[in-house]
Amino acid sequence: MSTNANLSLHCPRTIASEMETFLSDVVHEHGLSTNTITSYRCDLRTAAAMIEAPLEAITADDIKQFFASRNEQPGTTNRRIASLGRFFRWAVKQGLALHNPVEQVNSRYHTEHRPQPIASEAERRALDSAIANSSQPYRLIFILLREIGIRTDEVLNLNVGDVILEPGREVLLVQDSKSGTKRMVVLTPDVMPRSLRGLRSWMREMAEALPPETPLFRSSRGNRASYDTLHRRWVQVCKQAHLVDIEDGREVPRYTLHHLRHTAAAELIAFYPEQVVRRILGHRDPRSTRRYAEIVHAHQLGGSTQEEAQREQQAS
Q1: Rounded distance between C-alpha atoms, residue 171 and residue 183, angstroms
Q2: Of 242, 235, 230, which Cα lies nearest the Cα of 126?
Q3: What pLDDT, on a 0 to 100 scale, did the predictor assign at position 299?
Q4: Phi and psi at residue 254, in whole multiples of 5°?
Q5: CA–CA separation, 220 vs 298, rounded Å?
Q6: In whole angstroms, what is the distance from residue 280 CA to residue 187 CA?
Q7: The three-state (H, E, C) secondary structure of the chain, written as one string
Q8: Mean pLDDT of the chain
Q9: CA 43, CA 292: separation in Å to the nearest integer?
Q10: Which of 34, 39, 87, 269 has the smallest number of Cβ neighbours within 10 A?
């Protein structure tokens, strides 16, 4: 029997009807985090509300019209494309669809990755205040992300032996999540004071002599702190800072944990040469670091231009 005949024998399968089966399958096969599954569910539910046709009848034009009707930021659009693309690849594999219509729209929505530091000083202060009110160990994790700019998984993978706080030699040995090698991040009191204070206090609180391979940040059950728990705490931080938006009827943090890395990088580039910031952040490509310098430079020029305009207005 042909594939077309197989497709016609069952009741129409739609995005809505197959969404939970898809999510269950990807969790079983790939062990995705709760946060990733929540993101998939949100994207698929949004698409299902507008695209009600059977899976085998959905075309690339249907997908394009869906995105055009949303009028969303490029980052959100690209995320939804990734979610729908994975869903339709699964549907084709299951024999529920003949092709993946998303393949024809991916390149049209591609945007160059650009750093996105938190530009508003008031929002940065609100986040810093909310972070300071968080409970440990998450308070210190957020501080390291916010002030040093290392990646989330790099912080969570830190061990006790990776923290060196000898006078004049305060460093973190960070396992680079991209290369797998370790890099040394020097902690300076002028640029990273909260990280230094927090780490010293945290190491004192541990008290007992722990093996070097002991996770630096552990859950209440003694396991290494997980990303899922960290993300839940981050949602609470954003709510306390009043930095949440309503998306599809639910509260969504305005900023992700990765925004902390971008923000830290933009601040570090104002104090250190590019090559130093590149080592701190673990960038393999110097152009990745240079983008932050360009952002800071553009912001400084914009500020100068605005001040000159104000002076000219006052003079006139």
Answers
A1: 10
A2: 242
A3: 63
A4: -65, -30
A5: 45
A6: 10
A7: CCHHHHHHHCCCCCHHHHHHHHHHHHHHHHCCCHHHHHHHHHHHHHHHHHCCCCHHHCCHHHHHHHHHHHCCCHHHHHHHHHHHHHHHHHHHHCCCCCCCHHHHCCHHHCCCCCCCCCCCHHHHHHHHHHHHCCCCCHHHHHHHHHHCCCCHHHHHCCEHHHEEEECCEEEEEEECCCCCCEEEEECCCCCCHHHHHHHHHHHHHHCCCCCCCCECCECCCCCECCHHHHHHHHHHHHHHCCCEEEECCEEEECCCHHHHHHHHHHHHCCCCCHHHHHHHHCCCCHHHHHHHHHHHHHHHHHHHHHHHHHHHHHHC
A8: 84
A9: 30
A10: 34
Using CA atoms, how far apart are residues 63 and 93, in angstroms rounded to an integer?
Answer: 19
Tokens 């009707």, residue located: 69
Give the sign of the dihedral formed by CA 280, CA 283, CA 285, CA 287. Answer: negative
pLDDT digits (tens, 9 = 90+) for 185-223: 999 999 999 999 999 999 998 866 788 889 999 988 888
Q: Which are the contacts of 208, defined by CB distance < 8 A and separation ≥ 6?
A: none
Residue 280, Cβ neighbours under 10 Å: how many? 25
- Please list the residues that pair with 250 across neighbouring strands: 247
Amino acid identity of 109? Y
Taking only the tens place, the pLDDT of each residue in 220-236 is: 888 899 888 999 999 99
- Dihedral sign for Cα 175, 178, 181, 183, please: negative
Contacts of 249 (CB under 8 A, 6+ apart): none
